[in-house]
Design a protein that fits this description.
Helix content is 51%, strand content 15%. With 197 residues, the chain is α/β, with parallel strands linked by helices. The chain has a single domain, classed as 3-Layer(aba) Sandwich (Rossmann fold). A five-stranded parallel β-sheet has the order 2-3-1-4-5, sandwiched between helices.
Length: 197
């Protein structure tokens, strides 16, 4: 990990598998620190509306939207807000890895210091959280519980959403891993705030 810099603005990317707590922690962190917050489904649901039956098109458009939104945010961020966003990253998928490299380059070329907050939770715990009221209210597409459960299971079986020792994609960034089963929401947010100092 590189030495922590003194840059004023921060880009906090919260990653992890579905229902690991990304939305809840991102919302709490942004409120506590007065950061701008854009969670994954605010963008993904737009892409899904146009490409519901075309997974490749949906993912491609989602990636494009996310890059465009944050490129413009940085360009017009005259009030100097730091930002928080969430993302389910597939470490064993080259398409996702290439996107993440391009996405992080947006901030590297700007006045932002990048922090990767990786959240973990067991499959069993995430299944329990899938019907959490806050999650369902924030993410209309998750209100179809059966479909949402199938997606969690499919991702669990087919992709790797947490890093392992040999992963190098985040080596040059501030990167920490937090197990969300072991701490309360407040404890997790405080742990992240300490990490950002």
């Amino acid at each position: 990990m590189k030495n922590k810099s003194k840059l004023k603005l921060k880009a906090i990317i919260i990653i992890g598998p579905p229902a690991a707590g990304k939305y809840t922690i991102g919302k709490m962190l942004s409120k506590t620190c007065n950061y701008r917050f854009l969670h994954e489904h605010q963008v993904l649901d737009i892409a899904s509306a146009f490409f519901e039956e075309n997974p490749v098109g949906r993912t491609t458009y989602y990636f494009k939207l996310k890059i465009d939104i944050f490129s413009d945010f940085i360009k017009y961020n005259t009030t100097n807000y730091s930002i928080v966003t969430t993302f389910v990253h597939l470490f064993d998928n080259d398409y996702y890895n290439n996107f993440m490299v391009s996405f992080l380059e947006i901030f590297q070329k700007s006045d932002y210091d990048v922090y990767i907050i990786e959240l973990k939770a067991s499959y069993e715990e995430r299944v329990k959280r899938n019907t959490n009221e806050d999650r369902l209210n924030a993410k209309p597409s998750k209100q179809n519980i059966e479909k949402s459960m199938k997606k969690i299971t499919a991702i669990e079986e087919k992709a790797r959403t947490n890093s392992i020792e040999n992963d190098t994609i985040f080596d040059t960034f501030h990167h920490t891993i937090i197990n969300t089963e072991l701490l309360s929401h407040d404890e997790i947010v405080n742990k992240i705030i300490d990490f950002l100092k």
